[in-house]
Amino acid sequence: MQNHLRVARESTWFEIGGVVAFAALVAIIVNVTRFELSGAPLVLAGIVVAIVPALLWLSAFYRQDRIEPEPRQFVIGVFILGALLYQAIGQPLTREIFRAQDWLGANWVIAITGSILVGGLITQFLLYAAVRYSVFNSSEFDQRIDGIIYGAAAGLGYATMQNIQYVVGNGGVNLGIGALTIAVEALSLASLGGISGYFLGRAKFDKMGALWLPLGLALAAILNGGVDLVLRQVPFIGGDLNVNPWYGLLVGVVIAGGTFFVLFRMMNRLPSAIETTTSADEPEWIVWLVVAMGLAAAWLVRGNILEQTRVATVAQVSISYPATWSRASEPGALVAAMDRARGGIFGARVSVRQSPRAELFSASGAMTDAALNWSLARGKELIAYRLLETSETKWQGRDATRIEYVFLLDAPQGSAAGALPALMRAVDVLVVGGDQVYVLTFAAPSSEYDHLADLRERIIATWRVP
After folding, report:
1. CA 427, CA 88: separation in Å to the nearest integer?
2. Angle at the Cα of 347 from the Cα atoms of 342 and 352, rounded to 5 degrees
3. Which domains does the chain have, with CATH numbers?
4. Closest Cα to residue 163, out of 54, 259, 73?
5. Are 121 and 221 in contact (CB under 8 A)?
6. Whole-angstrom Cα distance, residue 221 to residue 128?
7. Mean pLDDT by 10 residues, the chain (466 residues)
8. Residue by residue, what is the 3-state secondary structure of 254-288?
9. Please, are residues 184 and 315 in contact by the beta-carbon 8 Å criterion?
10. Which residues are registered as beta bridge partners of 402?
11. How many C-beta atoms lie closer than 10 Å to residue 125's C-beta?
């Protein structure tokens, strides 16, 4: 047992170093050589970068149990199950059902509560389930430390699928920044999966009581939520516009190293036990009850926050936007707000501008002329502006025009901020009020535009002009 733990510790430190070295090497090479890809090659390269840390970690946990080796198919099977659970349940539940991205930024209390009850609880229950309902009752789960090994494998699968979605969903990422971000996810979720695995390992071979597994799940969820919150904020130390992913990597190393150090230390202090394949009969219904109560509480918080809005009014012009958004400043805008919490510098946004009617309308006074002139003006202001569609419509009984288009939004500091320009999709709604033309603009990353259709239409419907 002691020799087994020593091998586990040595392999863990070696592989943490391997993941960090790989991510740092990719980031340095990309920054020094200015190596650039685009399109499908960029996506493919990002997927490869997302998979490599998982391969390093899986080899570590497979080697560290080499005294009494775990069957390769069991370790890989739990890894794949973790990935499938993220794709089939974790992501849809978090983003589509609970819509955590739409309300976690309301304030710090909500951010902490939501991160624990949604992100932390869902993630940790799925990692727990990946082990508990697969390999847990197998004869190959024959030592306490196997819980950590399989828990970490489930966490790696979860992180790897999450990282692949991150790459594919963004149409490829800056490989330097992406490698650091991917390494952080792999480090954190591997170690957090190890926590759930520790409690499972103890539950199988020691009589820990009915509250042991629920306590372990709750603790893992709290730590998961706290880690997620910290890792989201750390890269922005020094200001929202100064993104430094190296800070995140440093914190990820501390979290993973510290977590595994504590887990192995606790394992080392356990008295010798006769470890058999007969598990303690821990009641499962308490675990499910804890999950149900936590998600019910999260649902109540979600409903309360999503219903809250704010109203900004300037010179008889007002817009209503989600309470989780914040006021922003945009050149030429009377009023503007954006979703900084969810998207940072590329978050969804709304703004209202005005232009003298005489500057947009021709002698005929047709809305089509105003739309054309406005579109030409926007084309000069925005990078890579491309008109998609212009249509006549009605807004609160008035004639109006909708102009849909795409453009590239660059970071305020350009490449110095370490972020690639984002493809944005937007709609401008033009309405005449007296001798002025008022224009409401709603813009969001192209990948999210369709998902925000309901919010977009609510904002347009509640807009007020003279």
Report:
1. 32
2. 130
3. 2-306 (no CATH), 309-462 (3.40.1000.10)
4. 54
5. yes
6. 11
7. 59 78 87 79 89 81 57 85 96 89 77 92 96 90 86 93 88 83 90 94 86 94 92 72 77 89 85 52 85 94 80 87 84 88 81 90 78 91 93 89 92 52 92 91 91 89 90
8. HHHHHHHHHHHHHHHHCCCCCCCCCCCCCCHHHHH
9. no
10. 391, 429
11. 24
Phi-psi region of 372 (alpha: psi -120 to 50; beta: other; left: phi over 0): alpha
Q: At residue 438, what are phi and psi to the nearest 5 degrees?
A: -100, 140
For residue 137, what is the DSSP state? T
Residues 6 or more apart in contact with residue 130 via CB below 8 angstroms: 78, 81, 82, 85, 154, 157, 158
**Structure letter (DSSP) for residue 139:** T
In which residue are the tokens 């009581």 written? 209
- Whose CA is closest to 69, among 14, 11, 4? 4
DSSP assignment of 415-441 equals GGGT---EEEEEEEEEEEETTEEEEEE
Contact status, residue 178 vs residue 49, Cβ threshold 8 Å: yes
Q: Hunting for tokens 């009494």 — which residue is that?
A: 68
Q: How far apart are the first and last CA of the chain?
A: 77
DSSP state of 1: -
Residue with tokens 């005294």: 67
Sheet holding 422-433, edge to edge: 326-327, 335-338, 349-356, 436-445, 422-433, 398-409, 383-395
